[in-house]
Amino acid sequence: MQVKIPDNINTIVHIGAGEGSELPTYLESAAARIVLVEPNPKLAEYLRDQVDNNDRVIVLESAVGGASAGKTLCVYSLTHTSSVYPLGELKSLYPGLKLLRSYDVEQEKFSQLLKKLDLRGSNNFLVVQAPGVEADVLEGLTHSNYLESFSQVYLQETRHGLYQCPEVDVVSKLLQLGYNLDSSSNESTATLIHAHLDSGRLALSRLTESLDVLSKKYEKECAAHIKTKKNLDGYKERSEQKLKNLEGQLARKESELVNMKEQLSEQAQKNQKALNSLISDHKEQLLKIEDISGSKLNAVQLNLSDAIDKQAEAEVKNQNLLQNLDEVNDRLDKALQSKKVLENTLQPLGKKVLQLSSLEKQVDEHKKRAEDVEKELKSFKQAAEKDLQNEKDAHKALQDECCQLRESLSETKKSLEDNKAWFASRKKQAEQLKLEVEELRAQLLRSEQLASGFEAIKQQLEQLGSKVTSHVDKSLENSNKKLESSMGLNQYLATGAMPLSVQERPLAPGAALFLAEKIEANDYDLIVSLGAGSTTTLVAKSILNKMHRLVGGEGLALPSGGGKASSEVVAPSQRDLPVRVVVFEHDKSCVEKIRTQASSNQLSSLVKVFHSPLVDYKHSGSDFLHYDCEAELKRMADYLDGRPSRLLIIVNGPPSMVGPKSFYPALPKVLNHFSQHALDVVVSSITRQDQRDVIDEWCSQLQKRSLTFKRYDKLDFSISTLEINKQ
Q: CA angle, corner 696, sides to 690 and 700, nearest 5?
């Protein structure tokens, strides 16, 4: 990530510092403090070694994440994909992605990290380069007091779905937080975003947020007030209805009590009258019985007295006495019968006395029930009066609360009016800013109109340049042929060996020198040429010269001049591969010619030429004709499996007459077999725009594969180079 540090920065905070590739830029800046946060223990130790004894730099071995982040850091074969979040669609994007190892790491929220760093002022610089944590970082900025602490933000937004992490629209969130977007660039798995803090936008955002909060609070209080008023009205209606019901119940109870008292009084009077009548009747009957009994007893006494008086006479008149005694006995029997009748007459009187006692008890019970009902009615009345008083107290409390709510509502309205006035002034400022923006847009439109004029001029210049380039190419081709013929003649006169060349595909002298210097400067394990040409001669001789010098010679000496053969020059450590240079060519006559010349110059141990007819090849929905070389490329990849190697890939064909973008399949085929190795890909002829477009498409494909690369175009030599996976 390329970052530019302003001069007024106080502190730089880098989340996911990795190997510290940006550290030299940070150290060159005027920042007083540089904080590098990296959870990988090995990378954190590497960073400490780099900044040893530098008081400006602090290395924190920690992971930044939210509640859903794991406490395990997973390190994959593509280093920039390491994360504390589990993989999502990234596994399908890179099927060959492998987990190298995992670390248990300490994790903290971004807000906790900011509190620990205790940032001062607003001129601080934030860089976030940790896949999946951008949502956690923005959440920490939103809910902390450090929102204004970072004036510049460089943030890597991971493409949605690649990790099982919280997703957020980074651009919208930054704009919401008061940042203006400066630039953004897309990579295969992420988008790099640069933004700076706009204090005006931040103030407007906070003002809008405060107004929204106040509006919601006002609406909530209004709703609460309406609800309270509605509840109060309902409670008042229920209280009044309940009071009416209680008063009705009290009236009914009082009416029932009066009726009950009247009924009891009437019943008591009736019972008293009945009792008095019954007692009077019984008394009369008792008096009659007593009169009858008294008269009968007196008669008996008289009879007994006569009997006693006549006892003397009884003795005298025994017969008469016995007769009289029988009469007396009869009378006594009658008296006894009368006594029984009297007793039978007195029995109903006793029952009626018992009934009278029972009636008296019932009267007492009715009186007691009446007293209990009266007490219950009294207690019910007291409870009703107490409930009524409680209802009145609650009603008064609700009225007091309603008054307080009205006062609070009035204060809120006043505060809202003040905020509305302040917002109106800010809105006016925003409108002024909008006018300025419109003016800038008008200026931009005029600039675009000028640019369109420049574009037309540019097209005319390109057409003219194309014509000039075509003329120069033809002149250059003639010059190359003359130069190559001259060099071949000099070689033949000096050594007696015929030159190894293919005149149909000449090589510019500058391009030839570039290739020779590259072979001289690098130790390539293998050189692959897709298409034969003058490069075949150059590459073979350059390797032979280098090897001859390594074993003690002064340079290349062909056999006729007494030099060593290529099989004698190749070092033993280099014999693990069949050959050093592999050439694929579809023209059979050209293949035979190169094989013959390589054999006559004793270069067969270095160069192997395959006859590879052009076959159909499909890639990204497009059809091509390209060399049939897949099997041989796989065999060479198997030789190199398990050890890091460096390869030189030279693209000479197929020729353009085969079709547009004829050499495009070269890089996809090479990457399918050698993507784990360091590659130098050289295209020996890029004189046309469509050829340069192929190089652009290759760069896009490398970005999608997340492979590191650098591109070098030497237009003066008509040559382009891609350095891939350079160590």
A: 140
